[in-house]
Amino acid sequence: MGNEVVIGIDLGGTNIVIGIFNRHGELLGRHTSHTGVDGSSFTVINNMVDGMQKCLQKHSLVLSDLVGVAVGSPGFLNRKEGMIYLAPNLKWRDFPLQKVLEERLECPVILENDANAAIYGEFRKGCAREFSSAIGFTLGTGIGGGIVIENRLVHGCFDMAGELGHMTLDPQGPLCGCGNHGCLEAFASASGVKKYLQEQYPHYKDSLIYSLVDDNLDKVSPVDVYQAALQNDSFAVSVFQRVGKYLGIAAANIINIFNPPVVFFNGGMTNAGDYIMNPLLAESQQRTITASYEKTTIRFGELGSDAGLMGIGALAVEAFFC
Ligand SMILES: [Zn+2]
């Protein structure tokens, strides 16, 4: 009984991050290994199980101390059936992840969408921990999201709720990876910004952004925009204003629909700080019913790339110890 632990896994296309948590939700140890995506599902599974065993060993624990495992996975999944329907980063389609892991580990396994896990991490342990409801956006290569109402993640009928990155903000806007035009993701994700920078190159060739990458448009990223903005490059500042504007419109939509106590943003783009936050606040204030805006806190996350691990750990603790 004394050694009972759970494991939370933040499964990404590049890395597998494993955390061991005790029943009080304390992180006892962590381990990172390469996902090793090679087209065979079992390579990834072997790397996960291997990483878990190493992590347990390092902390003088064994598989039989494990009460349960929660996996935050990218892609579309069905929690009830324990299936990953489609995870392009992992090259998985219709993969019964829960069953396969349960057989290997001989303990119960639950699945959660990775963006939901990251939002739950900020909700429980990070920037929204003082609230009982929260709605968050994860800003990465794409844009994900999560909705927590009265301490529970909202999953929808088929586990597809919270796709905040695919709210349409402009029907005539740029093409999104999902096939729709003008999604938030097409405007404010790292890949959306990169595409914008590539398109705008002929008009802003003199911008510092482009000289930072020697005019190699394949390399340009929001990090270069930030470096250029710090040196008062006016185009760079306008790129962040544009990102902040669209995030602000999205925040206003969320506030008008849910009237949440807090809306937050986690992920790499938040490193741009006030370059994004100032236009975001101005835009959301302008587009939100005043009484609702005044009662909603808007902020950036605190946990950075740890949000996913902390969230999936909290979900594991709640599922297996509560
Ligand atoms: Zn989309």
What tags apply to this protein structure?
40% helix; 322 residues; Nucleotidyltransferase, domain 5; binds zinc ion; alpha/beta; 13 strands; 5-stranded mixed beta sheet; 11 helices
Structure characterization notes:
- The chain is an alpha/beta fold and 322 residues long.
- The chain folds into 2 domains: 5-114 and 306-321, 2-Layer Sandwich (Nucleotidyltransferase, domain 5); 127-301, ATPase, nucleotide binding domain (Nucleotidyltransferase, domain 5).
- Helix content is 40%, strand content 22%.
- The chain contains 11 helices and 13 strands.
- The chain has helices spanning 41-58, 97-105, 114-125, 184-188, 190-200, 208-212, 222-230, 234-258, 274-287, 290-295, 307-321, and strands at 5-11, 15-21, 27-34, 66-73, 76-78, 83-87, 92-95, 109-113, 134-139, 143-149, 152-153, 262-267, 297-300.
- The strands form 3 sheets. It has a 5-stranded mixed sheet, sandwiched between helices. Strands 11-10-9-12-13 form a 5-stranded mixed sheet, with helices on both faces. A 3-stranded antiparallel sheet has the order 5-6-7, covered by helices on one side.
- Strand 6 and strand 7 form a beta hairpin.
- Helix 7 crosses helix 8.
- The radius of gyration is 20 Å and the shape is globular.
- Zinc ion (ZN) is lined by residues 166, 176, 178, 180, 183, 185.
